[in-house]
Amino acid sequence: MNFFLERFLAVFAVMMIHVSASGFYTNPVQSFTWQVVNFYECMVRWAVPVFVMVSGMFFLNPQKEITLSKLYRKNIFRIVMALITWGLFYRSLSISKMIFFRQSLR
User: Fold this and answer.
1) What is the extent of the structural domain holding 104?
2) Mean pLDDT, all residues of the chain
3) What is the pLDDT of residues 47-65, one digit of tens each?
4) Could you tell me which residue, 85 or 7, shows the higher pLDDT?
5) pLDDT at 5
6) Same domain as 80, residue 28
7) Which of 36, 35, 43 has its CA nearest to residue 16?
8) Euclidean distance between CA atoms 96 and 102, whole angstroms
9) Is 20 in the same domain as 71?
10) Helices (H), strands (E): how many in the chain?
């Protein structure tokens, strides 16, 4: 199978996991809706390890030489910066909800 197709399917399945996870909190456990959400979530649970393996396969390409300094400078720095940026963005959303809608911070 084409690796890009596998990656696309894994991304789609991970999105289904996140969408179905919201149904766990909004429906009672004994309801039919909760059982349907649980079914779909279980059907796409394979996506997380496949997504990690396919991403690792692209990252660990044998034709590319990755030194430890390049790994820290390029890849890990990007991940840390993305975490900080998105963390600040979501925190500012929480603060703005508290200010404008008088909701408590979570």
Assistant:
1) 65-106
2) 83
3) 888 878 877 776 777 777 8
4) 85
5) 82
6) no
7) 43
8) 9
9) no
10) 5, 0
- Helix axis angle for 47-59 and 3-26, nearest 10°, is 140
- List Cα–Cα distances, 35 to 40, 44, 45, 48, 59, in angstroms: 9, 15, 15, 21, 37
89 in the same domain as 58: no
- Using CA of residue 9, residue 11, residue 17, residue 23, what is the dihedral sign? negative
Residues 50 and 75 reside in one and the same domain: no
More confident residue, 75 or 13: 13
Are residue 4 and residue 38 in the same domain, yes or no?
Answer: yes
> Residue for token digits 């996870």?
21
Q: CA 84, CA 82: separation in Å to the nearest integer?
A: 5
Number of independent structural domains in the chain: 2
State the pLDDT at residue 88: 94
